[in-house]
Design brief:
The protein contains eleven helices and eleven strands. It is of the alpha/beta class. Helix 1 crosses helix 2 and helix 8 packs antiparallel against helix 9.
């Protein structure tokens, strides 16, 4: 079953050569991970490429020299949240750069206790927070299969169960699996307030403090539309005593549009050991 593109030509260019040219321009001369920075997860934004594409591309470029047998993408649902999480049922994903394949082994391990694997199929078809990542993955990891997981209820108890299920699936697969968390940060505040809010969420990501991160979000001191994926990644990384995090790039939409009255925050960050 093929998932066709629904946002090519709007969120990102319709043609592959345009995307490749953009990525090359954004990442020329940018650093890559040091040998000792073994990626557990990558946090990247999912707005239109004109606003957040460079930030996301620099994140993927940073881990681009590392090998992964599979990439597991944790992304929020913007269309409905009446479920905990849903593993994408598609076998293939169309992009302007070519097809991306689903990882059947990771899919099986994450869905073996799921009764209806197609329940949220329409939500998967519409969701841009996944699709925006697919051309970048195809560019940097052209032969690596994926397994997207769309998160509905972004609560800590849901994130904990998901993190545990991911741990079990990765262990059972015997594969090197990288986790991609798709999220934007603060939404539609002036740039001064946005930067303060985003600096707080970045602080808790850097300290891998899921509890403080969640408390700050529910108290509205900071925002992230992909908070469920962030929590799950931090909880997943928690099994490693040597897990760390670092910022690759932070920016916001005002730096591109010139409108600093209502900006959206973007972060690329690495969780590694």
């Amino acid at each position: 079953m093929l998932r066709r593109t629904t946002h090519a030509g709007s969120f990102y260019p319709r043609f592959g050569d345009q995307i490749s040219t953009q990525i090359q321009r954004w990442t020329e001369g940018q650093p890559t991970a040091r040998r000792e920075e073994n990626c557990l997860g990558l946090i990247v934004p999912h707005a239109g490429y004109v606003y957040s594409g460079a930030c996301a591309a620099k994140g993927f470029h940073y881990i681009g020299e590392q090998h992964f047998d599979s990439l597991l993408i944790l992304h929020p649902s913007h269309q409905g949240i009446n479920f905990d999480w849903s593993v994408s049922p598609f076998d293939q994903y169309d992009t302007p750069l070519g097809m991306v394949e689903q990882d059947p082994r990771i899919f099986e391990l994450l869905t073996r206790n799921t009764e209806d694997k197609n329940r949220e199929k329409r939500l998967h078809e519409l969701e841009h927070s996944l699709e925006i990542q697919l051309p970048l993955i195809k560019y940097f990891f052209p032969a690596t299969p994926i397994c997207p997981v769309m998160i509905g209820r972004p609560h800590p108890e849901v994130a904990m169960r998901l993190a545990e299920q991911i741990r079990e699936a990765v262990a059972a697969s015997g594969q090197k699996v990288g986790i991609i968390v798709s999220t934007d940060l603060s939404h539609y505040h002036d740039s001064d307030r946005a930067e303060k809010m985003d600096s707080l969420i970045i602080r808790y990501i850097m300290s891998l403090d899921a509890d403080a991160l969640w408390q700050s979000v529910i108290s509205k001191r900071c925002e992230a539309c992909g908070i469920g994926g962030l929590l799950a990644l931090i909880m997943y990384a928690g099994i490693h005593d040597d897990a760390k995090a670092k910022v690759i790039e932070y920016t916001h939409s005002g730096k591109v549009s010139g409108d600093n009255q209502q900006v959206v925050g973007y972060l690329s960050a690495l969780v590694y050991r």
